[in-house]
Amino acid sequence: MNALVFGVVAGLVFGVLDVLLMIPLKMENKATAMAGAFAGRFAIGFLIPLVAVPIAGWAIGALVGLLISLPDAIITRAYAPILGVGVVGGALIGLAATAWVA
């Protein structure tokens, strides 16, 4: 599969999954928080297959997930859930990109 197409699909899927995880949470400005979370997770999924670094695919994914999730975690002070989902999701997308991107 083309890296750009894979990135768009992975970003959409990861973004939607993260928004679904947020549905039961109680918070102010929930729609804004969901839009921001979707944008961040889309960026993770989109960028991973496009990054060319000489390390394993899962490590690229984990690194991209960490770097893009870190600002949100600092702002909200919810480090574990935001960084956890970003790093684990990024690593899984990195593994998938290694297998499916030509």
Structure description:
This protein has 102 residues and is mainly alpha-helical. It has one domain. Helix content is 78%, strand content 0%. It has four helices and no strands. Helix 1 (3-22) runs antiparallel to helix 2 (30-47) and helix 3 (57-76) packs antiparallel against helix 4. The chain is globular, with a radius of gyration of 13 Å.
**Cα-based radius of gyration, to the nearest Å:** 13 Å
How large is the count of helical segments?
A: 4
Q: How much β-strand is present in the residues?
A: under 5%
Number of strands: 0
Global geometry: globular
Largest sheet: none
| Secondary-structure element string | HHHH
Topology of helices and strands:
Elements: H1 3-22, H2 30-47, H3 57-76, H4 79-100
Record keyword descriptors for this entry.
about 100 residues; 4 helices; mainly alpha
Summed up:
Helix content is 78%, strand content 0%.
